[in-house]
Amino acid sequence: MNARLDHAQPYVLGLFRMVTGLLFASHGAASLFGVLGGAHGGGTVATGSWPGWYAAAIQLVAGVLVLLGLGTRAAAFVASGSMAYAYFTVHQPGALWPLQNGGEASAMFCWAFLLLVFTGPGALAVDGLFSSRSATASGRRDENRPEAVTA
């Protein structure tokens, strides 16, 4: 059982990365373009407004990069930091616990992206294409890229 779970790990991590990136990018798109219900129940954030517009731009760009698995660790680091900032400046002053202050999404995104900083993108990432080429050229094997299974 453990062997099967270990074999699936890079693919599940890749799926986790894609879903997290998609959800994060959706928040940014809603705030910037008014899609999916818009920002705060409708509309968009004012262009250039601090911190709303910048947070939405980070959400959209970092979310798409994480979704694709392109520059995953750097994009996840920026996304995690932006969610930590959001939690501590917007939510935490209202109450101590995320359930009380409405900061559950910020806290979860912060920790999810921090996890991706340390685990890497998993399988099915654009990063894997570049690292496999450089690994092949130097004769190394990439640990984040699963090998083909032979029966």
What portion of residues is helical?
55-70%
Rg over C-alpha atoms, rounded to the nearest angstrom: 18 Å
Q: Which of globular, elongated, flat, extended, rod-shaped describes the shape?
A: globular
Provide the structure class: mainly alpha
Intertermini distance: 17 Å
How confident overall, as mean pLDDT?
Answer: 87
- Main sheet attributes: strand count, strand direction, barrel closure: none
Oligomeric grouping of the chains? single chain
The count of strands amounts to 0
Taken as a percent bin, the fraction of beta residues is: under 5%
How are helices and strands ordered from N to C? Answer: HHHHHH
Low confidence ranges:
147-151
Number of helical regions? 6
Q: What would your notes on this structure say?
A:
By secondary structure, the chain is mainly α. Helix content is 68%, strand content 0%. It has six helices and no strands. It has helices at residues 2-33, 52-68, 72-91, 98-101, 104-119, 126-138.
